[in-house]
Amino acid sequence: MKTKKILAMILVVSMVAILFAACANEGGTGEYTRPENDGNSGPDDDYPSANYNNEDFTFLVIKHSDTTKDYYGGPYIDAETYTGAAINDAVYERNMAVEEKYSVNIKMREEINGEPAELLNSLYMAGEFNFDVIYGWGYKLGKCITENYFADFNDLKNVDLTKEYWAPTAMEDLTIDGKQYLSINDISMNKLEWAGFLFYNKQLMDDYNVEADLGVSVYDLVREGKWTLDTYLNMLSSVSNDLDGDGSITKNDVFGLIDGNALGTFASGASGIFNTVKNDDGTYSLSIYDEKVLSIAEKVNAVYSNSKYVKDYEELWEGADASGYSDMWEYARSFFVTNHALFCGGSAYLTSEFREMEAPYGILPYPKYDENQESYYSEVSSLASIFAIPSTYRTDMSTAGPERTGMILEYMAAKSNEILLPKYYEEVLHKQRLDSEDDREMMDIIRDSVRYEFTDMMGMESFAETKDKIYEKPSTAASTYTRAEKKMTKELNDFYTEVLTMSSKDSSEG
Question: Are residues 148 and 290 both part of a single domain?
Answer without folding.
Answer: no
